[in-house]
Amino acid sequence: MIQNQKTVIFSDFDGTITKRDVIVMIMEKFAPPPWEIIKDKILYERSITLKEGVEKLFKLIESKKKQEIIEFVKHEVKLREGFKDFLDLCNSKNIDFNVVSGGLDFFVEPVLESFKDKIKIFCNKGNFASEKISIDYKYLPKNCMLCGDCGCCKIEIIENYPKHAYTRILIGDSLTDLAASKVVDLVFARGDLIKYLKEENISYIPYNNFFEVKEQLIHNQLIKN
Ligand code: MG
Ligand code: ZN
């Protein structure tokens, strides 16, 4: 790693900052059973795109459930150990912590409410104007060849921090982080992401919590202690 580069963090939300995938938690609680078929098509068969898949999932839920969903996530979602500690460290070292999520603002933001001054959140917005929940896209890929048809292009968000000036770190857990793993300098992986990275021969550091991420970054001198 080049010494005068600045470190920047890009972290997935569902199953990365949170212990469980919040979209899955919401579906289990609020969606009719066909949601599992859609989930399998997105993640395992890979027969529908991430964008189409998330759209289909939220189309299963009535817009009037919005407030109930917000209360549910505020009470039920648990964060991965060490998140607050790691965020405090990043803040004290002036390292940007970007949350890049294929999820939607109405459940990402309430969960991260108490950290909002220490992070930047990039995600699309829930739209409740119709009977069922739809999506207002803010981060569709404009010119990205790598991720295909995703609803939130993590790569184009990462490219706002040019490679020559930054050491770019990605933290993720699933298929939704695979494309972004190809453009960053270092990947922290858990869950299914490990399997996908192995298939494509992309190197990574495994992690279980943010204490381990912190230790590794200090060890690799990407954060000075
Ligand atoms: Mg995830
Ligand atoms: Zn992209």
Span between termini: 17 Å
Unreliable segments of 5+ consecutive residues = none
Query: What's the total helix number?
Result: 11
Q: How many discrete structural domains? A: 1
The backbone outline, from C-alpha atoms, is globular
3D structure, described in words:
The protein is built from 11 helices and 7 strands. It has a 7-stranded mixed sheet with strand order 4-3-2-1-5-6-7. The longest helix has 11 residues, at 66-76. α5 runs parallel beside α7. The protein has helices spanning 13-17, 22-30, 35-43, 50-58, 66-76, 83-92, 105-111, 154-158, 178-181, 192-199, 210-219; strands spanning 6-11, 97-104, 120-127, 134-136, 166-172, 186-189, 205-206. It has one domain (6-219): Rossmann fold, CATH 3.40.50.1000. The chain is of the alpha/beta class and 225 residues long. It is globular, with a radius of gyration of 17 Å. The model has no long low-confidence stretch (mean pLDDT 94). The structure holds magnesium ion (MG) and zinc ion. Magnesium ion (MG) is lined by residues 12, 14-16, 21, 173-174, 176.
Layout: helices, strands, pairs:
Elements: E1 6-11, H1 13-17, H2 22-30, H3 35-43, H4 50-58, H5 66-76, H6 83-92, E2 97-104, H7 105-111, E3 120-127, E4 134-136, H8 154-158, E5 166-172, H9 178-181, E6 186-189, H10 192-199, E7 205-206, H11 210-219
Parallel strand pairs: 1-2, 1-5, 2-3, 5-6, 6-7
Antiparallel strand pairs: 3-4
Helix pairs in contact: 3-4, 5-7, 6-11
The structure holds magnesium ion and zinc ion (ZN).
